[in-house]
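We include the entry.

. . .
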Amino acid sequence: MISAAWLRVLHAARSGAAWRRAFFASDPPTPDALLALPDHTLVARGIDAAGIARLRNPEPGALEHLEAWLASPGRKLVVWGSPEYPERLARIPDPPLALWTAGERLELLSTPQIAMVGSRNATHGGRETARAFAAYLSRSGLTITSGLAVGIDAASHLGALDGPGGTIAVLAHGLDRIYPAEHEALAARIAEAGLLVSEYPPGVAPLPHHFPERNRIIAGLALGTLVVEAGRRSGALQTARCASEYGREVFAIPGSIHNPLAKGCHALLKQGAKLVEEAADVLVELAGQLELDVAPPESRDDAAAENGLTADESYRNLLNVMGFEPASFGEIQARCGLTTAELSSMLLMLELEGLVEALPGGRYCRVQTRSR
């Protein structure tokens, strides 16, 4: 049973950084200790007048609303100092006061986890890579932790649902809503087979500054962070920086030097991140921290895989001359000698089969399908 003191503090704090500092300044850090502090001490610890007013006089019905939310099946509040609070997260410099959770697999908070993050505007190949890697790692016993964003996050959650390792989605708002709304069905699947987590109480909106704060939890829960695809200014790099600061592993998947969504991964590799070409590479690096049944990678030579369109020699030749670097229609035509009509038709068919991706600016790129 969660105490009224905890609910009052969490309602007042709404996970603000000043409140976390004020809470942990007490010895021992408890909600009762924080409530007992005089107003002038709270001010000295960085709490503003509005926050103190919420603490002393909670908004009408607010605490009852939180209690009602927690009364529904599958919903829990994991507070600092409780046995369920994940030990890895407790070790970061700025841990959350509590985690609101929705789902039946609360034990996932303390299982071996790998964070998988990347661009919201991911390429088809990036999404397929994330999904395949997450499925392999989940089958190997790792829990996949991400942020439910579109692109790489969503693909990682979907892949993780294919294995027993499960998945955790860390949200940047209260769990009484789902953002983005298009992921309501995915969130429902995660709640059934994994766990939804937030440090923000129900009723808190997804404000812009919440997302960087959310990223520290994603990194803090995991043994390491894998960046699949990211531009130079991607929020995924902030998650990777947090992981590095916490002494956790950072992994990055390289890409084409011409792909702007590979620039962030390349920057991480220059800074010392571990280069990952297949999912098994992650397990090798984490072997000293894990006791997992590691499945062998299911290697595959894509150029030699002859099924579907690739059984046709003309399509195989086109894929070979394209390579994996983005190229314009004209550049591809100059290499293969096909007419405009022939090339247009073949590129369309390859795109429909998921073997080629159309990129902005009229460029095309061969997609390296992965089975691991």
Residues 6 and 31 are 5 Å apart (CA to CA). Confidence is low (pLDDT under 50) at residues 293-306.
